[in-house]
Amino acid sequence: MSNIVTAAGHNTHKIKIQISASDKTINVITYVIFTLFAIICVYPFYYVIINTLSANDISAKGEVIFYPIGMHLQNYKDVFKIPGLWNATLISVGRTVIGTLLTVVSSALLGFMFTQQDMWGRKFWYRFTIITMYFNAGIIPWYLTMNNLHLTNNFLAYVLPTIVSPFFIILVKTFVESTPKELQQAAEIDGAGVMTFFWSIMLPIIQPILATVAIFAAVGQWNSFQDTLILVTDSKLYSLQFILYQYINQASSLASMMNLQNTGSMAMQSLAKQQTTTSVRMTVTVIVVAPILLIYPIFQRFFVKGIMIGAVKG
Amino acid sequence: MQTVRNSSKKGAGIKKFLYISPFMVLLAIFAYYPLYGWVYAFFDYMPPIPLSKSPFVGLMWFRSLVENQVKIDQILQVLKNTFGISGIAIAFSWLPMIFAIFLNEMRSVRYRKLIQTVTTLPNFISWVLTYSLAFSMFSSEGMLNSLLKILGYTGQPVLFLQSSSHVWIVMWAWMTWKALGWSAIMYIAAMSGIDESLYEAARVDGATRMQVIRHITIPSLLPTYFVLLMLQIASFLNNGMEQYYVFQNAFNKDTIQVLDLYVFNLATLGGSYSLSVAISMLKSIVSVALLFIVNGMSKLFRGESIV
C-alpha cells in the first residue's frame, strides 16, 4: 500500500511528496477532528457575544444561533445600572493591577536573589519557598487562620497571599541563571552593590520573563473566585467573577428592575431592547470575559516561551 | 586581611537575605501558618465561640469518621466521586500527547497555529465563566435545546445541567474542553527537542508516518508523559472545588461532591468546622504521602526525581 519512492539522484524533492492512501485518510481525519474541536472551543464565546447584540426578545427564545438578529447596543448601556457592578469592576481591576505589580516585583527580586550563592541560608530559604507548591492546609483551615489575622472581608486578602509564588520564582531564577555570570562580576568590580546591579542591569535583561509572569499573575487575579467565596461576605468587596456567579442565579429579578428604571427615565423600551434574564446574564458574561479575550492575542506568544522555561526543572 | 574579607562577605550574604526576608515572612504567614488551623480538628469549635473557649475533644472527630454509619456512607460516596473523576482524568491522560502529535502532523503551519491558539483560549477563563457559557449552551432555554426545537424535537427541554447521570464524565469533558489545548503545549515544546536526524533516518528506511509516530515520536515523548502522569497521580485527591462548586445543584449533588467540595460544604452549609478540618487534614497528609511514594517510584525506575 505504501508507495514512498526513494528518489533517484537529482530528483530529491520527490521523496516527501509521495503520500500513501492511508496517509491521506489520516490527514483528512486529523483536519476534521481538529476543526471540530476548535469550533467547540470558540463557539460558546461567539454564541454569547452575538446574543448580547441581538434583539432581546428573539434572543430570549434562543433563536440567535449563527449570527446576530436585530443588532443593538442597548444591553451594554443598561448593564452598568445593575447595582454593584461598577464597584465589582473596580475591585477586580484593583486587585489585578495591585496584585500583579506586587507579584512581579517579588518574583523578580526573589528569583534573582536565589541565584546569589553567598546569600545567607540560600539553600534553606529556597526549599522553604518551593516546598509550598506541594502542600496546603486545606480550605477551611485557611479560612479559620485568615479569620484570626482579620483578613476576612479585607481587600488585602486578595493581594497579599499571592505575592510570593514559587512557580514564578522558578521561572525567573531559571532565566537569570541563563545570563552570563561575568555581568555581575564586572559590575561588582566597578563598585556596584547588589541592588544597583539588580535594578539597573538585571531587570532590563529579564524583562521578557517578567512579562510572562505578569500575564499569568494578572489572569490569575482576574479569574480568582474562590477567595471571595471563602473570605468575603461584604458586598462592597465582591469581585466581578463572584457577582457573575450570583447573577447567573438571579438574573430575572435584575432584568425586571432594570426595565423599571428604564421606563422611569425614558420612553417605553421596545421589546427588542427590554432586558430579559438571558440578556442580563450574557451581557455580564461578556463584560467579565472581555479583558481576557482582548489581551489573549497579545499574550498568546509569551506563554509558550514561559511554559518551555518552566518545563526545565527549578 | 583574610578575616576582614570573610566578614565583609558574610555581611553581604546577610544583607542579601535581608532583602528577601519580608517575603519569607509573607510566605510563613500565608503558606505555613494555615497549618496551625489543623488544631481546630481537636476541638469542638462552634463559631462564634472562640477556639480558646471551645472544649478539647481529642480524636473524637477522626473517630466519628469510622464509627457513625451515616457519616461512613457519606464519605464513601464522596471518595467514590473523587476516585471516579480523578480516575477518568488519569485514564485519558494520554490525550494531550496524542493531540500534540497529530497537531504537529498538520501540513499547513498557519492552520496549525490557528488551531493551537483557539484551543488554548478556554484555559484562560475562570470556572465561573465556563459555567456561564455552559448555562448559555445547555440550560433549558439554551442553545442546544433551541437547536433541537429547530430540528423538529417537540418534547420537554432536555435538562443537561440538572442531570444526575454521567456527572463524572461531564465534569471530565469540561476539564478537557478547558485544558486540552493548553496541556498539549508541553508536548509540543518537547517535540521540538527531538533529534531531526532520527526522522530523516526513518524516512530513508521507508517508514510510513504512523510508523514514525509509533517508533520515534511517542517514545521520545514518554519521559514527559511519565513525569506529568506521576504529578497527576500525586494530586489524585486534589480535584479543587471551584469547578464542582459552580456546577453543583440539588440534582447532581450526590455524584458531584468531591473531597474538596465536601469539606467546604460541610463547614459552610453544615457548620461542622472541626469535622471539616479533620478531613482536610487527613487529605493533606495522604496527598503528601502520595507525592513521596510517586517520587520514590520515579527515582527507583528512572533514577530521577520529579519534584
Describe this structure in words.
The complex is a heterodimer of chains A (314) and B (307). Chain A has helices at residues 21-53, 56-60, 74-78, 85-113, 122-130, 139-148, 156-159, 166-177, 182-189, 194-205, 207-223, 226-231, 240-265, 277-311. Chain A has 14 helices and no strands. The two termini of chain A are 48 Å apart. In chain A, helix 1 (21-53) crosses helix 14 (277-311) and helix 11 runs antiparallel to helix 14. Chain A is globular. Chain B starts with a helix and ends in a 5-residue tail after the last helix. In chain B, helix 3 runs parallel beside helix 8. Chain B has a domain at 68-124 and 177-302: Orthogonal Bundle (MetI-like fold). The longest helix of chain B is centred in the first third of the chain and has 31 residues, at 2-32. Chain B is mainly α and 307 residues long. Helices cover 70% and strands 0% of the residues of chain B. Chain B is built from 14 helices and no strands. At the A-B interface, helix 1, helix 4, helix 5, helix 6 and helix 11 of A face helix 1, helix 4, helix 5, helix 6 and helix 7 of B.
Offer a quick outline of the entry:
By secondary structure, chain A is mostly helical. Chain A is built from 14 helices and no strands. The radius of gyration of chain B is 26 Å and the shape is globular.
